[in-house]
Amino acid sequence: MNLNRYIDHTVLKATTLPKDVLQLCKEAKEHNFYSVCINGSYVELAASELKGTEVKVCAVIGFPLGAMSTKSKVFEAKTAIEDGASEIDMVINVGMLKAGEIEYVKKEIAAIKEAIGTNILKVIIENCYLTDDEKKVATALCLDAKADFVKTSTGFGTGGVTFEDIKLMKEIVGDKAELKAAGGVRDLETAEKYISLGVTRLGTSSGVELVTTGTADPNKY
What we know:
Blueprint: E1 7-10, H1 18-31, E2 35-38, H2 43-50, E3 56-61, H3 70-83, E4 87-91, H4 94-98, H5 102-116, E5 120-124, H6 132-144, E6 149-151, H7 163-173, E7 178-182, H8 188-196, E8 199-204, H9 207-212
Parallel strand pairs: 1-2, 1-8, 2-3, 3-4, 4-5, 5-6, 6-7, 7-8
Helix pairs in contact: 1-2, 3-5, 5-6, 6-7
């Protein structure tokens, strides 16, 4: 198993500096991670640094709350693609989902997928705020809206990914979409277990540690 090719090497903190993004890109190239996952303001910088490599640029949209208007999210996603991203990680409108506004959430996901065309869309459903029934509904909505991945967490909520959530989500997605685990993937044993449960992408700021020492700072994303 080439663990490095499962990793979206991530830096998303509010205090992130341009030099942090440059370091992220350097590490991603060195370890041949699948992508770097960054905020939109740094997409052009990362795309320039990674030009000619296999490493993709992934941009987060509506991050981390998901409560922006659909128009704002669509604009943000289209801009990120124009700036050099090829993958989008969007946050659903959690409040709308919990209010039962299912059609709103589905239409928003579909609108963003349409806006980015053949580029990859990962949908963050932020499991820590959802009941099991809501997780099932949210995961099914992602399939209905033609998302490529369903992702567990932003890493900025009250909790991150759990094995139970991945098992629940995998039952729904089957082979119709892929799963991304994020928030708390900090050691090799945990990463490998998520992969064994069907995860095909890992969102973590501990990618270097995972592929070198096997463990990471517990305070990291």
